[in-house]
Structures are given as structure tokens and as C-alpha cells.
Specification:
single chain, 259 residues, alpha/beta, 5 strands
């Protein structure tokens, strides 16, 4: 886990911010730093945070959130940084709750969605999804980097986007899982605060559904890997079919983005 902790970047107004570089690939090379970043929503970016994004060389912000989430917690406009938003939720019927803005937490969502829902949610998201297809097109052009991708708390949709980027670069699945689970450490303050608020508002409530939704879970990401392996002979076939990234293009990108 120590390697993952090197990727953490502390901002004043944004949770779960980290550099996705520094991870070792199957070939023994490393993903270059300052190319790919991930985080929670950026609505509370301070001026100092915005200066940090510019120092990190971020040119593109990619937002997976739905319309109502982006309206509730809008991303500040920053000169020289393009902001692209394409919802990634896919065919799931539930409405994402977003990150709480005023400190209140609505328990209704957590009563409606459980671990089984989220497992299915993960399993369907990487396929025929315009959001991830656009993400991977951006990744193919180095002029779009550094790229920061995010959703509400930077866990589920961002977790899958991060998985796709690291898979493209031939990072082992065990390492991809480690990177995904780092979210739980970084979201601990938020999850603890929300749990306390829910317990105060609903003293008799079972918070199991809340934790199933708010914590990154190996089962969820393994559902993605399982679905890819079920539908395709290889990750290369998956990348070709879903994102039009051939083996040749993948190799070229690895030359550019690995060291």
C-alpha cells in the first residue's frame, strides 16, 4: 500500500485527489506521473487548489456526473483548462445522490440501493458507454494531458475510468485493485461524518446499505473484470471493440506514457 500513498495530493477543498502515475506495469515499467489524475467533485476548489491544478499541468477535466449532480455542485471555470462532462451512469435506473453540499444526507437513496445493485451497476458501465468512450479518446491524444477525471466522490465512475486507463497501460489487475481501494482511506472523513449525520437523523436505521454504497469494494471491481473476461478473449480485444484502441495504438501509447 505504501506505493499508493505516494500518489496522494492534498487539496484544501477537494477530497480523494491523487496522481495515477508511479504504478508498475506487467513489463516492469512505470506509469509516468503528472499525466492522469482522479478526484471527487471540484465544486469547493479554492484559489490555492486551482493554482495547484495549473502547477500540475492539468489541461483537461473530465466529469462523469449527471446533470443534477453538476448543477448542485458545479465545477469552477478555469482559464486554460477544458472541462468536458459526459454522464457515465449508463442504463442504471437509480439516480446518483451526488456529494452533499449543505451537510445534509438523504437516507432514501441508501435504502433503495444495495451491494447487489452496485455490483450490477459496475458490471454494465464499461460497455457501450459514451462517457468512457470519450475518455479513452482523450487519453489517446497526449495534448489533452494532464487529465483529471472525477465524479461525485471519485469512487465508482471514476474508479472504472481509472481501471480502463491503467488497463490500457498494462498495469496488473492486483495493482489496479489496490489503486481503486485507496479511495476508502481518502474518503474516511466524509464517510464518518455522513454516517454520524444519518445515525442522528435515523437512530434506529441499519447503516449497512449506506456503507455498501459509500465504500469501494473488491466485489464491485471484480464484477467489471469478470464481465470483460466473459465477453472477450482478452483485454486487448475489449479495448479494440469498446474504444477502437488496437494493439498497435496501445503499444504506441505505452511508449509515450510509461518510463
Amino acid at each position: 500500500m505504501s506505493q499508493s500513498l505516494d500518489q496522494i495530493i492534498v487539496l484544501e477543498g477537494v477530497l480523494n485527489f491523487r496522481d495515477m502515475g508511479g504504478y508498475k506495469t506487467n513489463s516492469g515499467k512505470l506509469v509516468k506521473r503528472n499525466l492522469f489524475f482522479r478526484s471527487a467533485n471540484l465544486a469547493k476548489l479554492t484559489l490555492q487548489d486551482q493554482q495547484m491544478l495549473k502547477r500540475l499541468g492539468i489541461k483537461t477535466i473530465f466529469d462523469y456526473r449527471d446533470d443534477h449532480e453538476a448543477t448542485h455542485n458545479p465545477t469552477p471555470v478555469m482559464e486554460g483548462i477544458q472541462n468536458i462532462r459526459i454522464p457515465a451512469k449508463g442504463a442504471s435506473s437509480f439516480k446518483m445522490p451526488g456529494a452533499p453540499k449543505d451537510g445534509s444526507v438523504n437516507f432514501d437513496f441508501y435504502k433503495q440501493v444495495n451491494a447487489d445493485h452496485f455490483t450490477k451497476f459496475y458490471a454494465q458501465m464499461p460497455f457501450n458507454n459514451p462517457s468512457f468512450q470519450r475518455l479513452m479518446q482523450l487519453v489517446k491524444n497526449e495534448n489533452n494531458l494532464g487529465l483529471l477525471h472525477h465524479c461525485a466522490v471519485g469512487k465508482d465512475r471514476t474508479g472504472i475510468g481509472g481501471t480502463l486507463i491503467l488497463m490500457l497501460l498494462d498495469v496488473p489487475r492486483e495493482t489496479i485493485m489496490q489503486e481503486y481501494l485507496l479511495t476508502n482511506r481518502l474518503l474516511t472523513p466524509l464517510v464518518t461524518k455522513m454516517a454520524q449525520q444519518l445515525k442522528a437523523a435515523y437512530p434506529d436505521a441499519d447503516l449497512t446499505p449506506f456503507y455498501e454504497v459509500m465504500l469501494a469494494n473488491e466485489k464491485y471491481l471484480n464484477a467489471v473484470f469478470h464481465e470483460i473476461d466473459t465477453r472477450y478473449e482478452s483485454e486487448a480485444d475489449f479495448l479494440q471493440d469498446q474504444f477502437r484502441i488496437s494493439k498497435e495504438v496501445r503499444a504506441e501509447l505505452q511508449v509515450k506514457y510509461l518510463e
